[in-house]
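Luciferase, Candidatus Kurthia intestinigallinarum. Tokens?
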Amino acid sequence: MTNTHFYWFAPTNGDGEFLGTEKPQRPANLETITQVAQAAEDAGFEGILIPTGVPYLDSWAVGSAIVHHTKKIRPLVAFRPGFISPTVASKLAATLDQFSDGRLLVNVVTGGSQTELAKDGDYTEHGERYERTGEFLDVIKKTWQEDSVTHKGEFFETTDATLFPPLKQQAGIPIYFGGSSDIAKEIAAEHADVFLQWGEPVARIGEQIQDVKARAKKYGRTLEYGIRLHIVVRDTEEEAWAAAHHIISQIDTDVQQSIQQIKSGSDSVAQQRMTEIAAKTDRFDKYSWTGIGKVRKGAGTAIVGTPDQVKEALDDYVNVGITHFVLSGFPHAEEATRFGKDVLPKFNPVTV
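Tokens:
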């Protein structure tokens, strides 16, 4: 049986049963986020993704909070290499790795919307951003592996850099990385441990996996592969689709226009592909739905159906090479519990 890994999502810009409202029903505060993390841990999720960018809370601070309010769930901390030096990021990661007793995972996010990146003062074009990311990953991995690092490159320079504290995970902190452009896939092949994609049709996911596998072979490396999806699961198919449409039933026009502006200003190949899928159809494959993409940047695909249908749809991704699922539902605490009860045991049965 394929060893599958399941992660939930920390809603660090607010939460609720509706998407696209002017204000979230539940604020992005410590109480909301720790409730979600604890619910995901209790439900049996291995990890929890903490997003980065606009308009989310700082992912490192949230990761630390989650570590100190849970016992075993692994924070998957997303961060952008353009806003921090590799040696500083290495120290942040090593500190949280120690505090969490080796639970930390990191998701390096190059960033795909020039509109959004400009809000934080980054005006670097697409190709150069990824070149910077490649050099960043080269340096940060060396700080985890070597006693002292001296580096002089195009974007970063350091002399006799040493790491304190040492990593708890002596083999290094697992790096999750995504991107659909050629340069993104090349960087993933050379540096990443898990290559992440958004919820495209199964056939296209399989094609990208084969592409990255071939690239990784050049470096003598083997990667694992993951996907970011939303889940709407109910006892009946009719209830599931009613719940799905309920999520987008209160969209505020101004909020939707703001999201569309960010997406239209994106030079991310993955975002462009997500937008194209949503423009063509509401549904694809067996149980996939693009409705969430109407009011959400990034991952816009949901799997909608009964527990058996959701299992079937996820299995289709497993069959093309996916072993890591980063999931979310609205609201997040309740839906983590539901998935943990209705679907997760179908993948990881509890043995007595």
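The chain has one domain: 5-347.
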